[in-house]
Amino acid sequence: MGSARSLMLVGGGRMGEALLGGLISRGWAPAEAIVVIEPVEARRKELGARYQGISVHAGVPEAAGAGALPDGAVLAVKPADAEAASRALAPLGVTRVLSIAAGVTTAALQGWLGEPTAVIRAMPNTPALVGEGAAAVAGGSSAGPEDLDWARGILEAVGTVVTVSEAALDAVTGLSGSGPAYVFLIAEALIDAGVLVGLSRPVARQLAVQTLLGSARMLGETGEEPSALRAQVTSPGGTTAAGLRVLESAGVRAAILEAVAAATERSRQLGSS
Length: 273
Description:
Strand content: 5-15%
Shape: elongated
Number of helices: 12
Distance between the termini: 38 Å
Helix content: 40-55%
Largest sheet: 8 strands, mixed
Strand order of the largest sheet: 3-2-1-4-5-6-7-8
């Protein structure tokens, strides 16, 4: 495990596996250079069979005993498990640690890991599971530009990445961290609306999902502002104008603003508890 691209992934859950699959498929590192720590035996067997070549262990001490001494590590564990995982990593002397444990500050991680480990904190979202994630990274006091580039490279294997201050991560949580749930709610409503106006549920679902996919691609690929694209669809006195009038009257725009603000504030509360 002496490669400069060697990595220990602590946590083999859904997000951990998303990163694992993305790193291997994008060629960030060969499977043989990645060690996965997963305490659940059935899950270890599943990951080992699915990703040939990786090394899978029940815990950090077992991996270290087998000679797995990576240069960097990713903490893909629940917030409650972050301290134990960090303290287990500390003796290995890893130079960099990227944490995706929600609400756990870089200062806390640094305290558990000790110097001179560079700590980077990230907030990814669930579309990373299909390689279309949105994540933000923030470096701790010991993290330099190269450390941030390293963390970005890992997360870019499963989506897009921005760099923000750690103070902004709560806002990231409110927008993109919780954002998929808002989109799924809109999808539910569109499907139900299609059924209401006479479509079968399978047809309504197919049309609603493709409408969301296509609209997102237009936003991403054209570079135009949402307001401009909305105007292109909206003819004076037409069907879209009639629908938009109802949405604006119902306060949908304001509700989305309040939802992101509420999720951001809840993230702040959880981080300070």
